[in-house]
Design brief:
With 161 residues, the protein is mainly alpha-helical. 76% of the residues lie in helices and 0% in strands.
């Protein structure tokens, strides 16, 4: 079924279900839908912020707890070297600090921009070393989330001075 046909079918079904409701109930259903849309619009950037922070914290934590598992992803440097280990530890700390800043909403747009730059580096490195894989595409999605947050101006639950 085509996308247009599916939308027409859904709209028709929605119209039939609304038509079967009495006028006051239809108005309440419309008000409820409007309220749900408003709440979603208000809180979606906050949810995005918390979820991006969770992803960054997860990877930062794991890079700090088992850096030797991540040294193979360091470009140009031999994976068994102390320099690769130090690079992973620094990267883990940066990820963790960005996660805290983004989740708490502290200098959010700057932290999201730095995270986006870091994710561009990760995506480019993964693409060059391993090609286009599911891992790379996952990071492209996380990159998109960070880019969206760089432009977010309306946020809820921020720490402010």
């Amino acid at each position: 079924m085509s996308n247009t046909a599916w939308r027409n079918r859904a709209a028709s079904k929605s119209a039939r279900s609304k038509a079967s409701l009495p006028a006051p109930d239809r108005a309440r259903a419309g008000d409820l839908a409007d309220r749900a849309t408003q709440v979603t619009a208000e809180w979606a950037p906050t949810a995005a912020r918390v979820l991006l922070g969770l992803v960054l914290a997860w990877f930062g934590y794991h890079e700090l707890m088992a850096p030797q598992l991540w040294t193979g992803y360091v470009p140009v440097i031999a994976s068994g070297s102390g320099l690769a280990l130090a690079a992973v530890l620094v990267h883990g700390w940066v990820l963790l600090m960005l996660a805290v800043a983004i989740t708490a909403g502290v200098v959010l747009r700057l932290a999201a921009a730095v995270a986006a730059l870091l994710l561009v580096q990760i995506v480019v490195t993964l693409t060059i070393t391993g090609g286009l894989t599911d891992l790379t595409l996952r990071d492209v999605g996380v990159l998109g989330l960070a880019v969206c947050l760089t432009g977010a101006t309306r946020q809820r639950a921020l720490l402010t001075a």
